[in-house]
Every structure is written in structure tokens, then in C-alpha cells.
Design goal:
The protein is α+β, with helices and mostly antiparallel strands. It is about 25% helix and about 25% strand.
Length: about 300
């Protein structure tokens, strides 16, 4: 693929505050679609570049490489902007200026703001997302940044690439399910990015690359061979929830966790590390009733409990 030789001059104009490092040359289609474009996904168009650059270019002037700049911005997004995730946001896909003004944003708002931040300092970035998870309601989106000749997954306020909870959840996807594909925004793509507006956003399928990332994550950070991760939710989620206990066959309490409540993010669960051998049970703290946990060969098991029936 052809490389552009205009990029260095163009990106220096975009981020004149950079001193310790310079943006890389990138393929022309990446420059056009993921660096020069002002649109990220389905947000209302706005002239965000000058405002966003004024925040982030000085912040990364001390960095020595694109990688270092990417990680510094990701880790300090709330510190630099005051914006934070909440389910109380006005709408999901705020543009960068709305996010900076209103502060309360969704994962889509986080993604849009981060992509604009990276583009403003000369680093290509795009939105990636999934229409629905296999075990929880709702979609999710996150940014990818391009440096060292490849795309890298990063998230709002994270210190490293390939966010653990995302990698874990990807490992639980059904690869045959049409709504569980991981998609990247791309003009001319044959898929529809998971946002909800009148006009569909074209995207490409990047599922297999993420399945490989997830497999690598499980190999490093997943449960040991003799353990299984158990994730417990309650439906419907109440205003106030009790603790739930994990017991072995002898009634010994192996762990106790608070159940998620109505105001928690959908990805919040009561999570345990459970031995694979033997029978195990769940019990609401203070109750005498127990629910036997099914046996599965999976590394992660998710249980949704009905609130109107006590385990």
C-alpha cells in the first residue's frame, strides 16, 4: 500500500507543541479515513480539532514515542478533560465538544472523544465495537490507535492496551452469532457499526484479530486450569442488593461478594474464582436456601439469578 510523504508536514501542522517525538508515516487510506476525517461514528458534525488539540498536544509534549503518547492520554482522560462514564448521560454518541462541555458520557462518547484526541496530535484512530455481548445486555465500543504499523486497542482511563474485561468477554462470544461480531468503522464497509441513529455507519469485521488477542489474554491472565471464573448477576437489578456467598459441598464459605444493583454498569458482576472439582453452591447472605452451580468445561461461567426467587 502506498505511503504518503506529505504526512509529516501535515501532522506537524496539526500538533506544533510536539517536541520529543514526531508522528509516523502511515498508509494513505489510514491517513484519509482515520487521521484527517473529523467524523468518528454517528455523532453530530462539529469543528472540534482546535479545541481538542489545545488540551492534548501540550499534555504529550514530554512523551518520547507515539506509544507513550497514546498510553499517557488514555490513562489521564478524565484528569485532562473532566469527562467520565455514567449511565446518566444525555445521549450516547456525543461529539467531542459536547463531551467536553457536559462531562457525563457513555462508552460511545468516550470513544469519540479519545479518537479525536489522538487524531488531534497526529496519531490515526478509529472506533471499534460490538452489537451485543454473549452474556450481558447492551453493546460496547472502544478506540483503536495506529502506530508501529498496526492497530492497538485502548480504553478510557486505562493504563495499558487490550483491556482485561473486554478480552475476557470476547472469549465468551459465540463466533457464529451475527450480532457478536467485532466491527471497526470504515467507509465502504459491508457491516453496520453498533450505534443507533437514522443513517447506518459502515464498518468492517475485525473479529478474528480480537479473538486472537483474547486467547493471548486468557493464556496470560485467565483462571488456572483447576479454577473457573464465576460471574453472578441478578435480574431485575434492585436498588439495594444483598451479598451472595459461594460455598463448597461441606457448607464452607469460599467467598462473599455484593450483587450488582440498578445503578451499576451492565458489566458489573459478583465475581468469584471457583474450584472446578466438587459441587459448589450459591447462597444469599443470611439465608438457609442454596442453589447448586451447574458444572461446565468453560473457563468462565455466567449465572443470571431471578430476584423473585432466592438461591
Amino acid at each position: 500500500m502506498k505511503l504518503t510523504h506529505i504526512l509529516t508536514t501535515a501532522t506537524m501542522m496539526l500538533c506544533p507543541a510536539l517536541a520529543a517525538w514526531q508522528p509516523e508515516e502511515v498508509p494513505e487510506d489510514i491517513r484519509k479515513n482515520y487521521l484527517e476525517s473529523n467524523m468518528v461514528m454517528s455523532e453530530d458534525p462539529c469543528d472540534w480539532r482546535e479545541t481538542v488539540r489545545a488540551i492534548f498536544a501540550p499534555a504529550v509534549a514530554h512523551c518520547n514515542s507515539p506509544r507513550e503518547a497514546v498510553l499517557y492520554i488514555a490513562e489521564n482522560m478524565t484528569k485532562l478533560t473532566g469527562a467520565y462514564y455514567t449511565i446518566e448521560r444525555r445521549r450516547a454518541d456525543m461529539n467531542a465538544l459536547e463531551a467536553l462541555a457536559e462531562k457525563k458520557i457513555s462508552c460511545s462518547g468516550q470513544t469519540i472523544l479519545m479518537v479525536c484526541a489522538y487524531r488531534s496530535i497526529g496519531i490515526p484512530a478509529r472506533a471499534v465495537g460490538i452489537p451485543t455481548w454473549n452474556h450481558i445486555r447492551g453493546n460496547h465500543s472502544w478506540p483503536e490507535v495506529y502506530f508501529d504499523g498496526e492497530w492497538h486497542m485502548i480504553e478510557f482511563n486505562e493504563k495499558d492496551f487490550n483491556t482485561g474485561w473486554v478480552m475476557e468477554n470476547i472469549g465468551m462470544l459465540d463466533p457464529k452469532h451475527p450480532m457478536q461480531k467485532i466491527l471497526a468503522v470504515h467507509p465502504g464497509g459491508s457491516y453496520c457499526f453498533p450505534v443507533y441513529r437514522e443513517h447506518p455507519i459502515p464498518a468492517i469485521d475485525v473479529t478474528e484479530r480480537y479473538r486472537k488477542l483474547s486467547a493471548d489474554w486468557y493464556a496470560k491472565y485467565g483462571p488456572p486450569a483447576d479454577q473457573q471464573r464465576l460471574m453472578v448477576d441478578v435480574v431485575p437489578r434492585p436498588e439495594v442488593a444483598p451479598n451472595i456467598e459461594l460455598l463448597d459441598a461441606n457448607g464452607k464459605v469460599l467467598g462473599k461478594r455484593p450483587l450488582p444493583v440498578k445503578t451499576d454498569d451492565v458489566r458489573e458482576f459478583a465475581t468469584f474464582s471457583m474450584p472446578r472439582e466438587g459441587k459448589h453452591y450459591l447462597r444469599i447472605e443470611g439465608s438457609t436456601q442454596q442453589l447448586e452451580i451447574p458444572t461446565t468445561p468453560d473457563a468462565v461461567q455466567v449465572l443470571h439469578l431471578q430476584m423473585n426467587s432466592k438461591p
